Amino acid sequence: MIYILRRFAAFYVDNVILFIVTGFAYILKERISGISLDKIIVPDTNELMLYHIVLFFLYFFVCEVFLFRTIGKILFKLRICGFSSISLKTRLFQSTLRNLSRLIPFEPFSIFLDEEKIMWHDSISKTKVIDARSH
């Protein structure tokens, strides 16, 4: 059960980081547009969601392809197994599959449906998240 909690905690940390980065990206866009900090208004929800979705895919894609883990996974000592021994082209394809399959409704809860605790985005991309402390 600890493994499941670590996976959820890592994902939560990654999303907190993404929300902070999304806010900074919005402020940066406003500043580049010439709006002073005191004139920046609360963004439109749709615009902010678009920023978050783009940054979500970029963050997970870059972290998974080049580091084999995200900041959340680093903090909770987890690592993606199945990326390190394959070509960059295949890794790019697998990471794309991982990220697109995260869009499946209720996908985070798929960990409870598999005896081996493999989530759909892991099985679809033929990867597995492992405890980095034991490897």
Strand order in the sheet with the most strands:
1-2
Distance between the termini: 19 Å
**Count of individual helical segments:** 5
Rounded mean pLDDT score = 86
- Report on the biggest sheet: 2 strands, antiparallel
Helix content: 55-70%
Radius of gyration (Å): 17 Å
Q: Can you tell me the overall shape?
A: elongated
Order of helices and strands: HHHEHHE
Uncertain regions: pLDDT < 50 for 5+ in a row?
A: none
Oligomeric description of these chains: single chain
What is the structural class?
A: mainly alpha
Number of DSSP strands? 2
Which band does the percent of strand residues land in? 5-15%
Description of the molecule:
- The protein contains five helices and two strands.
- With 135 residues, it is mainly alpha-helical.
- The longest helix has 31 residues.
- The radius of gyration is 17 Å and the shape is elongated.
